[in-house]
Automatic annotation (TrEMBL):
NCBIfam families: DapE-ArgE, PRK13013.1. Residues 196-317 form the Peptidase M20 dimerisation domain. Keywords: Cobalt, Hydrolase, Metal-binding, Zinc. Its cofactor is Zn(2+); Co(2+). CDD domains: M20_ArgE_DapE-like. One of its GO terms (molecular function) is metal ion binding. Belongs to the peptidase M20A family. The lineage of its organism: Bacteria, Pseudomonadati, Pseudomonadota, Alphaproteobacteria, Futianiales. InterPro entries: ArgE/DapE, Bact_exopeptidase_dim_dom, Peptidase_M20, Peptidase_M20_dimer, Peptidase_M20A. It comes from Futiania mangrovi. This is Acetylornithine deacetylase/succinyl-diaminopimelate desuccinylase family protein. It comes from the Bacteria.
C-alpha cells in the first residue's frame, strides 16, 4: 500500500509545484490581511472538486477583521467508510511582508534549481500544498480508511492566530469528537517532528514624566531617562539571569534553550507619525514592548514578577519614577508527549522515508498549536512539514521540491496509520 501511495505522490510532483505556486501568487500579506478570501476560495474549490464538504469561517470581531480585510478561513472534511478517528491537516495562509533584499519577485513563485522561491513558500504554503497532495493521493488511490480527513487553511498565524485557529478552536473545530489528531506542516525541516513551543509573554511598559521646554529640562521630568534606567536594570540584572537558565525541552536552535527577552520596539517623545522637525519638549511618555520567551520549567507568574519587581524597585528608589504595564499576549509552553499517537505515526513514516530516526524538536517561537491545546483541549498535535526553519521571513525564501514530495509521503502514510488503514 505504501509503495502504491508513494508512486502516486511522485506522479503528482508537478501538480504539487503548480498548487504551491498558485498559493504563493496570492499575496496574503499580514498585516493587514490582504487577499485572504481569494486564497481560501482557491483551497476550497480544490477540495470541492475532490468531494470534500467545505465551509468558510470568518473570524468575526477578531483583531484586524473588517469588511475590507475579512479574516476568512476555509475547512474541508471528507468521510471514510465508517466511524473512526479524524486526522486534520492545518496550514496558515498568511505571510509576512516581503521586505527588501530579494533577487526574484517575491510573489512570482519562481522555479529554479529544484526549488520554488517566494514569500510563503517555506512558511508555509509549500507545507500546506504537500498536505493537500498527500490527502489527494489517498483519495485517488481509493484506499479505504475509517473516520475522516480534514484540511484547513487559516489566517493570522503570523500575528497570533486569533482570527484563524484561535477563533475556530473556540468554536469547536479542533476538539474531540470532531478531530482526534492534528498535523501542522510548519517548516521545521523534513526529518524533524516539532512537539511544541516555548512560552511567550508580550507586554508594553510605559514610563511617565512631565512635559516642559527642551531648553529647561529641569522644569520637566524626562520619561525617556526613566525608561533608560529600566533598560539598564534589564541589561545588568535580568538578561544575565535568563542566560543562565536551560530547559530540558529540545528547543532549536541551541541558543533558544535559554530564556530570552527581546526589546521589540521603543518610542518616546513626539508621535511616530510626525514627519516634520521635532518641537523642543521634554517627553512625558516612553513606551517599550518586551518579548519574553520562557521555558516549560518556569512559572508564568514568576516570569511577570521578575519584570514588575524591577519596576517596583525603581519606583521606590528613583525620584519621580512612575510606570504603567499592560499585557499584549501570553501563551504558556506546550509540548506533546513523544508517545502520542500522531508523533509515533509520523516518526514511523520518517524512518521509512529517510532511513533514520526522526529528530524531536521544540520551536523557539509559538505557532497555532497553542490554540489547539488551549481552546481545543486536544493534546495529539504536532508540527511536521517541509521547509528549512531558518529561511522563514527571509528574503529569497524558498522550499525544496524534493522535500515537499517526501513530506507528502510521510503525511499520507501517517494519516492512513492513524485511521487504521496503513499497510
Amino acid at each position: 500500500m505504501s509503495a502504491e501511495l508513494n508512486a502516486r505522490i511522485d506522479a503528482k510532483r508537478e501538480e504539487l509545484v503548480a498548487l504551491t505556486r498558485d498559493l504563493v501568487r496570492i499575496p496574503t500579506v499580514n498585516p493587514p490581511g490582504d487577499a485572504y478570501t481569494p486564497c481560501a476560495e482557491l483551497i476550497g474549490d480544490w477540495m470541492k472538486r475532490r468531494g470534500f464538504t467545505v465551509e468558510y469561517v470568518r473570524g468575526e470581531g477578531t483583531p484586524g477583521d473588517s469588511d475590507r480585510y475579512p479574516r476568512t478561513n476555509v475547512i474541508g472534511r471528507i468521510e471514510g467508510r465508517g466511524p473512526g478517528p479524524c486526522v486534520h491537516f492545518n496550514g496558515h495562509i498568511d505571510v509576512v511582508q516581503a521586505g527588501q533584499g530579494w533577487t526574484v519577485d517575491p510573489f512570482e513563485a519562481v522555479v529554479k534549481d529544484g526549488r520554488i522561491y517566494g514569500r510563503g513558500t517555506c512558511d508555509m504554503k509549500g507545507g500546506l500544498a504537500a498536505a493537500m497532495i498527500a490527502v489527494d493521493a489517498i483519495l485517488e488511490a481509493g484506499i479505504p480508511f475509517q473516520g475522516a480527513l480534514e484540511i484547513s487553511g487559516t489566517v493570522d498565524e503570523e500575528s497570533g492566530g486569533y482570527g484563524g485557529v484561535g477563533y475556530m478552536a473556540q468554536k469547536g473545530y479542533f476538539s474531540k469528537p470532531r478531530v482526534d489528531h492534528v498535523i501542522i506542516p510548519e517548516p521545521l525541516n523534513v526529518d524533524r517532528i516539532c512537539l511544541g513551543h516555548r512560552g511567550v509573554w508580550w507586554a508594553e511598559v510605559e514610563t511617565l514624566g512631565r512635559i516642559a521646554h527642551g531648553s529647561m529640562p529641569f522644569l520637566g521630568d524626562c520619561a525617556v531617562r526613566h525608561m533608560g534606567a529600566f533598560l539598564d536594570r534589564i541589561e545588568r540584572e535580568l538578561i544575565p539571569a535568563l542566560d543562565a537558565r536551560r530547559t530540558s525541552m529540545p528547543v532549536v536552535p541551541e541558543g533558544a534553550r535559554a530564556s530570552t527577552l527581546n526589546i521589540n520596539s521603543i518610542h518616546g517623545g513626539l508621535a511616530e507619525e510626525f514627519e516634520g522637525l521635532p518641537s523642543p519638549c521634554v517627553p512625558d511618555s516612553c513606551r517599550m514592548v518586551i518579548d519574553r520567551r520562557y521555558l516549560i520549567e518556569e512559572d508564568p507568574d514568576d516570569v511577570k514578577r521578575e519584570v514588575t519587581g524591577i519596576l517596583e524597585r525603581l519606583a521606590a528608589e528613583r525620584q519621580g519614577f512612575r510606570y504603567r504595564i499592560r499585557d499584549i499576549l501570553e501563551f504558556v509552553p506546550t509540548m506533546t508527549e513523544e508517545s502520542a499517537p500522531v508523533v509515533q505515526a509520523v516518526a514511523r513514516e520518517i524512518a521509512r522515508e529517510f532511513g533514520k530516526s526522526a529528530e524531536y524538536v521544540v520551536s523557539p517561537g509559538t505557532y497555532d498549536q497553542k490554540h489547539i491545546a488551549r481552546f481545543g483541549h486536544l493534546k495529539d498535535c504536532i508540527a511536521y512539514g517541509p521547509g528549512i526553519l531558518d529561511l522563514a521571513h527571509q528574503p529569497d525564501e524558498f522550499i525544496v521540491i524534493d522535500d515537499m514530495v517526501a513530506s507528502a509521503k510521510v503525511m499520507a502514510g501517517a494519516a492512513l496509520a492513524l485511521t487504521g488503514a496503513a499497510g
